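User: ok so my PI wants both of these folded by tonight, can you help

Assistant: No problem, let's get them done. Here's the first:
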Amino acid sequence: MHFEKEVQCKRNDAIDSAVGFIIPFGFFATLFIIATIVDVFSGF
């Protein structure tokens, strides 16, 4: 096929999709952890 001969990036797509999932997940998980800590300490 024509389009398979001119590959721009030869990295594994699974790695890119894993990074694309983990980074937003880590961001929202960090926000959730911070909000939970603030909620716990606001009770004192």
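One down. Here's the second:
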Amino acid sequence: MLMKVLEFFRNLPPKKCTHCGKEIDEQHECYGNTCSDCLGAAYRQ
């Protein structure tokens, strides 16, 4: 039986930055894999 789509995304492990290993606080299905600290983002929430 196929898993429900929402259940699949809920069960994904937290995404981690490829540079520093810090957990990224964003949607798991996003394509980015680098945290804002490593990107040098000027805007911080």
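The mean pLDDT is 78. The chain has two helices and no strands. Good luck tonight!
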